[in-house]
Amino acid sequence: METDRGIAVKNIASSGQPDAGGRSGGADTLAGGFRRIGANLGGACRFYVLLLRRWGSIAARQHSVFIKKGILMNHAKVWSIVGLVVLSLVACGRGTATALPGPAPTPIPLPLSELGPYSAGKRSYVAEDPARGNREVPITVWYPAVRPEGATQTAFWVDRGWDPDPSGAPYPLLVSSTKVANIFAPYLISHGFAWVSVDGIDSYPQMRDEMYNQPMDILFALNEVATHPSEGLEGMIDADRAGAIGYSFDGYNTLAMSGARVDPDYYRAQCAAPDTTTTEVILSRLSAFSCDPAKDWDAFAARAGDSLTTSDDGLWQPMADPRIRAVMPMACEGWWLFGERGLAAVDRPTLMLVSTDDELYAENMLIYEHLGAPDKAFISFVGRDHMMIYDTDMVARMAHFAVAFFGVHLQGREDLRQYFSEQFISQYDDLAWGAAEGE
Questions:
Q1: Fewest CB within a 10 Å sphere: which of 75, 220, 245, 300?
Q2: Do 240 and 295 have their domain in common?
Q3: Which phi and psi angles does 69 have, rounded to 5°?
Q4: Helix (H, G, I), strand (E, B), or coil: what is residue 106?
């Protein structure tokens, strides 16, 4: 959710253009270096190195130029970051050299990690939400497409303008930000899903109006494709079978669309006097949530609107839609905002993915334990951290679980349930069902 922890190494343009396969370029390598340094320094330096890593991620994002073959970075900025790394080693390591581990072994591919039989196309446009003062919402629609003769399709590129493929229509719908769709949509579209995403929404450094505007933008996009399909896509999308998916800041959006409800009393109480859970799990790990809205909560709630904030039990109304039948929040945040009461309202199948070395791991476990959904699962990626989103092998693995999970709940493919089961996970040393041992 925050700019320095969210999907932060590369900045996908708000136009929704894909990154042309640059996920594992120079900025990713640099971020990986910070991760390895942080893992090898002593506990006394953890806080300092976390800040350094996050500043490095911001610099890598803000000073990167994307080209079709990869990522070019501003050299002056690179050397300034390297200098800070050296200083951190001297200050924290007391002059002792720290050996960096070799590259991690290539993970075993999962059965649904490959592209499926469909090609993918997309188109973008801007719609206005009359319920929110004609707020403009830029939308990208992704769909199974007919691949022109001689054209190629990869997991890193989706062409605009390809004709829709109606052979399997109507296709169940997934919703997210375009930033997350750029990464996962090519996989899911190829397995017979459609996708609608909102362009331009991104991570943010502290809690503010985005925490309700972003989920509401995505819900508006869902309704827009359901009621006003673009020309040529009529009959292609089954919006009544929808699922929400997101990572980091968009993982929060997904959690918000799961039926969770904001608990103003709990949130404001934490700002005044944090309880043990907030102190140990949230504040110690530099959560994106802040107390800025609490400074003038009435004005904040007024901007959100009475239809969202008014209820008989003191909780906000859920930012959800009954057409969303299943949700997949990955590496998300939200405990401080929803609390135990708000999370108990989650009422649809939920699959959570998170890496064990992610600063958000403990918060994700806490969220999972308090979800009201009876059908829920939690899968740990052992030894990985928040930036695994830029590792193409890890993206393919996460896509495997998305294909299986939404295949069951949106396509009615019960044969795919085995691929996100405890028995399946037990076959892989770098995956864990629930909390990983020792976490």
A1: 75
A2: yes
A3: -95, -5
A4: coil
Instruction: Check residue 95 and give left, alpha or beta (phi > 0: left; psi -120 to 50: alpha).
Output: left
Show the CA angle centred on residue 223, arms to residues 138 and 319, nearest 5°: 90
Cα 4 from Cα 202, distance rounded (Å): 11
Measured torsion, CA atoms of residues 369, 370, 375, 378, in degrees rounded to the nearest 10: -30
Q: Is 39 helix (H, G, I), strand (E, B) or coil?
A: helix
- Whether residue 345 contacts residue 315, with contact meaning beta carbons closer than 8 Å, is answered with yes
Q: What is the rounded distance in angstroms from the CA atom of residue 148 to the CA atom of residue 191?
A: 19
Q: Are residues 80 and 203 in the same domain?
A: no
Q: How far apart are CA 438 and CA 37, in angstroms?
A: 22
Q: Is the CB of residue 240 less than 8 Å from the CB of residue 172?
A: no
Please check whether residues 95 and 127 belong to one and the same domain: no
- In terms of Cα–Cα distance, which of 231, 224, 171, 165 is closest to 197? 224
30-82 confidence digits (pLDDT tens): 333 433 333 333 333 333 333 333 334 333 333 332 322 232 233 343 344 44
Q: In terms of residue numbers, what domain contains 37?
A: 1-103
User: How many structural domains comprise the chain?
Assistant: 2
Give, in degrees to the nearest 5, the angle at Cα 354 between 431 and 418: 50
Q: Which residues contact 111 (CB under 8 A, 6 or more apart)?
A: 400, 419
Cβ contact 118:195 at 8 Å: no
